[in-house]
Amino acid sequence: RQLAKENPISADAVIAVPDSANSAALGYAEESGIPFELGLLRNHYVGRTFIKPEQKDRDFGARMKYNPVRDVLAGKRVVVVDDSLVRGTTSRSLVRMLKSVGSTEVHFRIGSPPVRFPCFYGIDMPTKGELIGSTLEVHEIEKQLGVDSLGYLSLEGMVSAVGQAGPYCTACFSGRYPAPLVDVEEGLASEDGPAL
Fold first, then answer.
1. C-alpha distances in angstroms, 159 versus 34, 163, 164?
2. What digits encode the pLDDT tens for the residues 133-170?
3. Out of 1-10, 34-43, 175-184, which region has the weakest mean confidence (pLDDT)?
4. Contact 107, 77 (CB under 8 A)
5. Overall number of domains in the chain
6. Largest CA distance in the chain
7. What is the rounded distance in angstroms from the CA atom of residue 10 to the CA atom of residue 144?
8. Cys staple from 31: which of 4, 125, 150, 180, with CB 3.0 to 4.6 Å?
9. pLDDT tens, 167-184?
10. What share of the chain in percent tops pLDDT 70?
11. Got the DSSP string for 23-51?
12. Which of 153, 193, 159 is nearest to 175 (CA)?
């Protein structure tokens, strides 16, 4: 719901990037009053594409993972809700797919803030330069993806939407790491975050 409050748009359908964004898309649809549709079918035999080490594997995986439902999407202004936007590989592929089946507008809404910093705690996003949100402004990302608009959930909105007090790691969004990081090459600990 918070994502729709922060990033409203006029559209005909809300769809999720299944399965991780299903809840966020349902909340967006409910808050906005735009109907939720099952516009993308997911191939469950293709794993998480953004963590594959090679770009060619990420590109191939993104094309194989989703199938757009033409009858749901043709002639419609579509809001696509995803849980995060890391490199942009999947998003670019989805935009091409949706436009190829006749969607007239494609608006992306992301259920997290921009991923601007690497995760050093187990997720494969090793360099800041690979993260689309680390160096580009929203209007530049819109152009790279080919979307009509792009909106992110704010960090404050994300924490408030969780609804529980507690320590959350938000380092990939804020750059504030919960533990000092060690520069392996220099052998130095950094209190301010990674040496990038």
1. 24, 7, 8
2. 999 999 999 999 999 999 999 999 998 888 776 678 89
3. 175-184
4. yes
5. 1
6. 57
7. 22
8. 4
9. 788 999 999 988 887 765
10. 81
11. HHHHHHHHHHTPPB---EEE-TTS--STT
12. 193
- As a whole number of angstroms, the distance between CA 107 and CA 147 comes to 6
DSSP tag of 19: T
> CATH number of the domain that 124 lies in?
3.40.50.2020
Can you give the residue range of the structural domain that contains 16? 2-167
Query: At 168, which amino acid appears?
Result: Y
Read off the pTM: 0.84
**Residue 75: exposed, middle, or buried by beta-carbon count in 10 A (0-12, 13-18, 19+)?**
exposed
Residue 159 covered by a domain: yes
Spatial contact of 12 and 77, defined as CB atoms under 8 Å apart:
yes
The answer to whether residue 126 sits within a structural domain is yes
Instruction: For residue 185, tell me if it sits in a domain.
Output: no
Q: Of all residues in the chain, what percent are helix, strand and coil, respectively (each to 5)? A: 35, 15, 45
Query: How much is the pLDDT for 3?
Result: 98
